[in-house]
Design brief:
Blueprint: E1 4-9, H1 17-30, E2 34-38, E3 52-55, H2 57-63, H3 80-86, H4 89-94, E4 97-104, H5 106-122, E5 127-132, H6 150-171, E6 174-179, H7 186-194, E7 199-201, H8 213-229, E8 235-240, H9 249-254, H10 274-289, E9 295-300, H11 311-329, E10 335-339, E11 345-349, H12 350-353, H13 371-380, H14 389-392, H15 404-407
Length: 410
């Protein structure tokens, strides 16, 4: 039987999914392989009847520059019992599969790591290579290299946020914007500073202070007051949804917010409007303080995940797809593929990235100690400082309570 490979996609979509799949398919077909596309993510590997199809050149050519994911995605996460009883080795044997390619973010990478160790322990001669994907940019690639999908999502998010800021200026309104980013603030930070938003809130900023709803609302107010002192009655605040991961259940309940949780224990952030929640709480605090300021909520999330990839990701994802073959042909397995800053294909072994206690791949947060990040805080964002206290008493009796750096204990 013709030698084969199988590709699956896990987690949520990101611009460039189809580019990776199409490029892998074209490259392996060129080198004599049959390519199978597995629908349903990891679920198919632990099912007696996996849903898959043969991907040919024509199909690959039709999808490679499209948004979304042609292969149906899934957040299925196998249990130890699944590995012990349900791993479908016959699927690999019957189709003469030599390579499993997984495409996804941190959860998908962590499961790929478990599968690599499982295959090695069982002495199954099946290679596996992971392609790092996420618009959150939170997989720990070297040299601050981005994960694919991030640049396109950032570009589209920047376009949306620019329109929001123009609306704020036109109508003398404030907007509360929430941006995707489950455990890291890369996307919110980038969207915020490209549009010179006066207040950006990401979880990494709270390195010396607990994240609370009250602190975030006070940070929004400190920007509003600062802009009033500057003679500006408009602006925008962008908040990374990752801050929700750290809120206590009791505090959320005190504001009337309830979450459901997914199978991985993560709050299902997509089921509520984070911007609406913050805006409602902010409006209440503004009214309490007697500040006459209009605010409106906007969420930037699902609309940036399935867009047509921008040129950066079309190139990058094509290179990653070809890079999978280069690593495989070199006998490399159990790794993530990436390209270094010189454009060379490199491997990053999952076993070297895992948390030794949990086996999971830890997320990469924003490095708030970098000059480029500190310059955003110091020169782009606008907030109350000690020099503003006397003037700010026109709006609040205790301006120190709304001092951005004091709130963060910086």
């Amino acid at each position: 039987m013709q030698k084969s490979i199988v590709i699956l996609t896990g987690g949520g979509p990101a611009p460039g999914m189809n580019t990776v799949v199409g490029s892998i398919t074209k490259t392996f077909i060129r080198n004599g392989y049959r390519v199978l596309g597995l629908h349903g993510g990891y679920k198919g590997l632990f099912s007696p009847d996996p849903n898959y199809e043969v991907l040919d050149f024509i199909k690959a050519d039709a999808i490679f520059n499209r948004g979304g994911s042609y292969l149906v995605m899934s957040r299925f996460k196998p249990t130890q019992e699944d590995f012990d009883k349900n791993f479908n080795l016959s699927f690999f044997r019957d189709n003469n599969i030599e390579l499993l390619v997984t495409i996804g973010g941190d959860d998908t990478a962590s499961t790929a790591n478990r599968i690599a160790k499982f295959l090695a322990a069982k002495e199954y001669k099946i290679s596996n290579i992971h392609v790092p994907k996420t618009i959150d940019n939170d997989l720990p690639l070297p040299q601050n290299i981005p994960t694919f999908g991030y640049q396109s999502a950032k570009g589209e998010g920047t376009r949306i946020a620019a329109t929001i800021y123009e609306d704020a200026r036109t109508n003398h309104t404030w907007f509360v914007v929430s941006a995707m980013g489950r455990s890291a603030g890369h996307l919110a930070l980038a969207i915020g500073y490209t549009n010179h938003y006066p207040m950006i809130v990401i979880p990494e900023m709270f390195n010396k202070s607990e994240i609370t709803v009250e602190k975030i609302v006070n940070m929004a107010i400190c920007a509003i007051i600062k802009r009033k002192l500057m003679g500006l009655e408009y602006g925008a605040i962008i908040i990374s949804e990752g801050v929700f991961e750290s809120f206590s259940s009791d505090e959320l309940l005190s504001y009337g917010v309830k979450f459901t949780y997914d199978e991985h224990g993560h709050p299902e952030l997509g089921k509520i409007s984070k911007a609406q929640m913050f805006n409602d709480i902010l409006e209440g605090k503004l009214k309490q303080l007697g500040l006459n300021t209009k605010s409106r909520p906007v969420d930037i999330g699902y609309e940036v995940r399935c867009i047509t990839p921008h040129a950066y990701d079309l190139v990058y994802c094509t290179e990653l797809g070809m890079g999978v073959y280069k690593l495989f042909a070199s006998g490399v397995t159990g790794c993530m593929v990436y390209l270094d800053l010189n454009g060379n294909v490199k491997s990053l072994y999952l076993k070297d990235m895992q948390d030794p206690a949990t086996g999971k791949i830890p997320p990469r947060g924003v490095n708030i100690h970098q000059d480029k990040v500190n310059m955003i805080f110091d020169y782009i964002m606008q907030y109350i400082t000690p020099e503003d206290y006397e003037a700010a008493k026109k709006y609040v009796a205790d301006p120190e309570a709304y001092d951005f750096k004091k709130i963060l204990n910086w």
